[in-house]
Specification:
The protein is α/β, with parallel strands linked by helices. The protein is built from 11 helices and 24 strands. The strands form 3 sheets. Strands 8, 14, 15, 16, 17, 18, 19, 20, 21, 22, 23 and 24 form a 12-stranded mixed beta sheet that branches. The protein has a 10-stranded mixed beta sheet with strand order 2-3-5-4-6-7-10-11-12-13, sandwiched between helices. 49% of the residues are buried.
Length: 566
Amino acid sequence: MTFRFSRVGPAPVPERASQYRVRMRDGIRLATDVYLPDGPDNAQTPTVLVRLPYDKNSRYVYFDEIAARFTARGYAVVVQDVRGKFRSEGQTLPFLRESDDGYDTIDWIVQQAWSDGLVGMFGDSYYGFTQWAAVASQHPALRAVVPRVTTVDFNATAQGGGPHDPPGVGRPVWLEGIEYYAHYWVDQGLYEYEPDRSIRPVVEQYEEAFRAIGARSAWFDTLVPHFTDLFPARGRHPYDARPVPVLHCVGWFDNILIPHLRDYLALAGRPGWDAVQYLWAGAVDHENYRLADAPATVDTDHGQSGAALDRMLPQYVDPALAFFDVFLKGIRTVSDLPKVRWELGHGDWRTSTAWPPLETVERTFWLARTEHAKGPLPEGGALVDSPSDEASSTQWTYDPEALVPSDTANSFEYLHSYPDLSDTANREDVLVFSGAALTKPLDLAGPLGLHLHVTSTAPTFDVFVKLVDVGPDGRAHLIARGEVSLRTDLAPPEVRVDLGHTGYRVRTGHRLAVLLASSDYPLFLPSSGSDDNPWTTTAAKSSGQTLRTGSAHPSRLTVSALPAHA
């Protein structure tokens, strides 16, 4: 059977944009669109710079619409295809040249007649990373950045352990995150195809695609089948650069929420940086779909509907406009900006002086009734308010031939489908622990974590955790998730699974519940169940996991909650 794929090239340059070829220090020229505000030809104004790899002229990034909102406020807008992508020259290789290219582009901007010498940057995901790279370059004209749903180190989101993880504790390979490089970073264009998920070894899915395309992704090859960390090769770490005002924009349903909030918290606690860190946190996902509209309909899907895009853009752009009005134009005062503006999902928008809000308290729910933990919801094991002295345990299995399916094929737009997890909870290889129906709302605001006492018959195994909201109708929807990869011989007796942060109201009549499993495919690479490389193994092994609870093994869920009001 012929492998099918399509290649997507650049869309036309909008009429309102003027395209330039901006020369970098090594002679490579980058395609750059300039949008100027109406006014006298000799007017000088601050500039908002965006550097991205997704075709600056595509409907996917709708920058002609975004630019119109900035120019209407009196800002020049510069949007650039990064090196090696779409209309720009150079080798198609992410990350490594973004600091120098960002510096050189800012240098070009400040030499233009319409520039007043001040530059801010804006954008999501990879074009949030290009902002951090420019911060690291320390160009004196860069005065403010608005990185959205991003992180300073994307490779760390894909696999490996965190810097503070104990020995034997890491993370499963985020297959969806690494697959991104096999679609977007082969050459200047974008390759659309669907891998055959049944092929083993898993790496062969992508080898098949590269053979059909006739080219490879060099960055994919740095990560698969053996991970290579090239972060030191990218020069100065942004944290070590001159402090710049930052408006961090995160989504409670974003699939890289955890590393982005780590960036924010690290800088909010770093001398010199702390005074200029601001946070905007909404009940949105990576692609800016909203919990309030989930699941998306024809009328609310901004990816398809122009009217829905018009309704979405103010929430997307206006926080950045307010920020730049302070730090680029100086027409508003710093006191006009809340340090933290955040949305309580199923609730309202709030402000606070810090994140988490200072009034939050930690609550603990203990995993109990393990003998009933095979579901279905809202039955199963229990989440209770006090620990039991009685020891108990239960088992679940990992079968590489019958993997637990992922909730969605695309976690970047999780709220677009907003899946019901009740069928997943009914599986025999998934454990379920459910709390009592609430008699008053529980408002979550801050970090979440699950502490587990778990072992396996395999030398290596994964644990996937989903914290869900179970409605009176039995449907279950995700609040937060986390996952760990463990080595049985090295992992500590108690393992904490980081579930990130949230702002979320569990409404009256609803329940909190926890789901535990050992696979989540195809979002995550299945475990080999052995010391074999999971990318290349053709014979992954089954295993059995044991969860223990009780006073000697206090498995428990911790949440941050606002004080209850009568």
